[in-house]
Write a structure and sequence with these properties.
Blueprint: E1 5-23, E2 26-40, E3 45-50, H1 58-69, H2 79-89, H3 97-117, H4 122-125, E4 133-137, H5 146-158, E5 164-168, H6 174-185, E6 193-197, H7 204-214, E7 222-223, H8 231-240, E8 245-247, H9 253-263, E9 268-269, H10 273-276, H11 278-291, H12 302-309, E10 318-320, E11 333-335, E12 338-340, H13 353-359
Parallel strand pairs: 4-10, 5-6, 6-7, 7-8, 8-9
Antiparallel strand pairs: 1-2, 2-3, 4-12, 11-12
Helix pairs in contact: 1-3, 2-3, 3-11, 5-6, 7-8, 9-11
Amino acid sequence: MHPLVSNISTVTVNLPLQRPIVSSVGQYDKWPFIITEVVLENGVVGNSYICPYLVNYRQSIESVIQELFKVFVNKPLAPKEFYEIGMRQLSLLGRSGIAMYALAALDIAFWDASAKQADLPLCEHLGGSLANVKAYNSGGLWLLPPEELASQADKLRQEGDFSALKVRLGRRELANDLRAIDAVRSQMHQDDDLLCDFNQVLNFTGALRRLKELDNQGLYWFEEPIPYHEFQNYAELRQRISTPLILGENFHGTDHAALSLELGSGDAIMPDLMRIGGVSGWLKTASLAEAYKKPLSSHLYHEVSAHLMRVTPTADYLEWTNWVDPLLEEPYQIKDGHLVIPERPGVGLEFNREIIDRYRVG
């Protein structure tokens, strides 16, 4: 008999970033985390964090989390069933946006509790096995002057002996993008992978021109050159370039993932745990990626995402940043460019209460 779900708590913290984000979608010195803790009747606690980008919307998201949780109180813990119930509950709000973020926060916490109840790491609870996961460092190389990127690239590599980094592109002048690529490559080995992200800064015609101009740079992929919802334009771009095209961090639920794959919008996808609908939404999306034979990489949330990559048949790269590490008692470690999944029940995250109190919002 599964234990009953008892109660919930949520809190938002706004952490300073070691390296501020400077991108086409905005500049951020801090990064918000909404922490959700679900308690079972036997005292087991399942937890999660989500990052809603805009801290001023945290009250709305926390409110939806709390309201949606009322549907599951005093019911036996059943994450897969809860997800389906939650999606039906959200039908009047829409299957995306804040509603999906709230469901994801709960879904991750429910799966964490379920794995802890089974006394297994999440990946083993889901039928996989423990192993290290190939990762790239995404914690810098923003739209900074190219002359600043070389020293930063060296530091990023040394944070975990990484052989893969991601640089942001889409500057006004092509020459400055090329200088940025050269600066980062100057600190990498010849066989290392250099990924890039445009953060949706280009329109279709601008992207067509810029991607063709960069097509000979040997980049691992072009990520989100145009607005994420222009699936048909992505499909057309893909026919005009040879560098792999990837999108997916802005898929809101499996509906977007299915549509994108059906239209052939990319050579690979990268779901975001919060937007895709938590563990349950990811698993559904991983099945779609397998059916379409497309590589799947992750976006943020490297701890939970690493467990899910271990049960994703087409798993490729895990995105890693150190943004959340100050909030954790025992952050996951990087070794030889791979994330090491610790042998702890569930996801195995414990939050630092002193840091929560110091940076708590509201």
